[in-house]
Queue: 4 jobs
Job 1
Amino acid sequence: MQQVAIAVLLTTFNRRDKTIACLKSLKGQVTTVPVAIDIYVTDDASADGTPEAIKVIYPEANVFIGSGSLFWAGGMRKSWGEAVKGNYDYYFLLNDDTILTSNVLEVLLSYYKNKATGIVVGSTAEDGKLSYGGRVITSKLNFKKEMVFSNTEFLNCDLGNANIMLVPKGVVDKIGILSDKYTHGIADYDYTLTAVEAGINVMVAPGILGTCSDDHGNNWKSANTTLKERIKYLKSPKGLAYNEYLYLIKKHLPQHYPVAFVKLWAKTLFPFLWDRFKN
């Protein structure tokens, strides 16, 4: 049986214990096909000893040190950009706060047994509730979306979170890696939308394949904050990422652009509406 070569891609910043727990769960994978794993990690100048701790778990890991301002998308691009210099069948995008079940790679790889092609996303949960995975767009005009999940079958989706995501070499050859238009968290949405628009399947694998906390919270600053703070959040890569989000919408969902523009500013100028109705 031919060995499958997989490059595992992570980016880390000052959460050593979570990163190590994630890597230990990766080390515990059980597969029926022979798998060769290489680790590519970009640590964005952590001060908590994360790179050294990674080397204890995976001495052979390829660890790159960032500038301290790469954020998630920048760090993942660095890891992926280094990995594509090698010869891999698959690229496994993994968030370092995700704890994998022992059969993740087995389930993800099973999709390709009958020569299927495309990206496969894994669902995560916290306290029995779905946290990350795949979503379908139910309204392009309002960018409404809902999670899709099955315990038994692979399902198509439009948007995939890269907490658990397997990308074959053929997909990378066709659409490349994460776009450099994004700093932080919406690069995975752009990537999966780009794949779908290129005729590439994006699938959600069956079952819960890991645990991960949805730590995003509210996507607005409350009326208790100053306007200056709210505008800063509007423009922040870890906030509403104003320019990047509008770029995403203009690229993939242009019919939603006017609504998106108004909502971003309404959240910033009139947050009491969200405080009242969303809470």
Job 2
Amino acid sequence: MSVLLFRLRSVPDDEAAEIRDLLTQNSIDYYETPGGNWGISMAAIWLKDESQLQEARSLIEAYQQERFARVRGEHERLRREGKKRTLMDEIKENPLQVIFYLAITAGLIYIFTKPFFAIGK
């Protein structure tokens, strides 16, 4: 009987591909269900053989710990080298776009809060 192994909602494409490769390399039979056109269905990886569940979960757990350490190290390296993008970098590179988005945000806040202030008058 099939058993749910890994949900793919909000999982980056590279991580999903690495998990598929990990399962394939370790000869674990699985299949994948898509999220559908509107994301209503459950996108997931399912095991065909329930007896492989513990092995697959331990492989994925080890992979996720290794991925966390790798991504964290990359983030720290970029921060140390001064290559990590910040909000100020974005403002310096696209000042008109930032001003435009701030104006839209302020306009929306005004439109949505105006009725509440009108009630008090």
Job 3
Amino acid sequence: MFRIIIAILFVTTTSCKEVSYKGPQPKGKPALREIPRELRGKYLLVGENETDTDTLIIARNGYFISSDSTSGVLGDSLVLKKYKGYYFFSDNENPEWLLRIIKKERNGDLSYMHMDRGEQSFNDFLVELNREIKIDSSEVDGKVLYQIDPTPRELLSLIKKGYFRKTVTIKKLRD
């Protein structure tokens, strides 16, 4: 109960808040040196309203999104790990790490997930999440960070309990 009260006291309600991590996830698992062949290729990104689309190209060492020239290259600040059928992309946004999860579907499409509170307020989301795992908060440059440090088992549990939601459909384009 005390942890819940502390979490509520530190919460400010802004829409762009995100729970982050202290390091690449899942912790203790080795980073991949390159993106596996099964993920490489061209994909169509389809937004929630299904009218916004873009092209994603996944290569051996990173990815590229065509419309806005967004890209990422595996290295010290973009780390890829595989665990229990999921691919975990950890992005270093000093002093925190953001996490995105990809799961390959049988038809070749990719499910793209991140921790999403849906319609829930950030405050309510933190209270609920704090029942599952300890949340640390700190202030850095006037911004409050909310971080968790799950074990691999706890991370899988959070996925299975729906804390990570599919937010974008990534459809495999046939060459």
Job 4
Amino acid sequence: MNKPYVDNRFPLSALTGKIIRAAQEVYYTLGPGFRELIYQRALARELAMQGLEFEREAWMDIRYKGGKVGRKRVDFIIGDETGSVMLEMKAKGELENVDVIQALSYLKASGYKVGLLLNFGAQKLGIKRLAN
């Protein structure tokens, strides 16, 4: 079976592939132009229909040198038996460097090993795989 979003060079590739396929379904169904909240709600429905476990607007601890220094809410934490992926979403004309830097900082400070940054606002669904 062809798994176009699975690339074993990336950690948790099978899980991120499932998430990307769900995001593609949302993008192809709705298209660009809506607020981020609409895409969050649609993705939550699609993830549930795909049988993926997730928490929307999930709080994660921010750690510094072994101690908790705060909390940050991220759009989704999605997991299965292989691990968990942090997902940040945008709905803008194009991703900027600051969006990638911010997502990488959240990933590093939270301790999650894998993240996705998705942009639903452009002519094509923007996908960035992130690793800590």
